[in-house]
Amino acid sequence: xxxxxxxHWRSRSANPRSxxxxxxxxxxxxxxxxxxxxxxxxxSLADAVDFxxxxxxxxxxxxxxxxxxxxxxxxxxxxxxxxxxxxxxGFAKRAxxxxxxxxxxxxxxxxxxxxxxxxx
Length: 120
Fold this sequence. Notes:
- With 120 residues, this protein is of the alpha+beta class.
- It has four helices and six strands.
- The protein has helices at 45-54, 62-75, 81-94, 101-112; strands at residues 4-6, 9-11, 25-35, 38-44, 98-99, 117-119.
- The chain has a four-stranded mixed beta sheet with strand order 2-4-3-5. A two-stranded antiparallel sheet has the order 1-6.
- Helix 2 (62-75) packs antiparallel against helix 3 (81-94).
- Residues 1-10 and 12-22 have low confidence and may be disordered.
């Protein structure tokens, strides 16, 4: 049985309020469920920091704190960007918000094709 999702996709990279960083792109983006039927692409340190800073305070834990600290350490050059991506990946997996990249990319392709619907 397939469910139909409307196309709601959010990329923080285009947001002018985003935390601005140089040379901070991830080698491959991560996709997370922001809310029901909303998938967000996390493609850089800026995206990860914005997402982590917006995470509800009552849901923050040591894994959230470690991921945020690793992102800031990467920004400051103390850790590689890949370490920040891995930390965010671990946070997203633990929070059960990690979306399969293949499914997300197929869903985005359907959205961009103009159908507005994707079968999942």
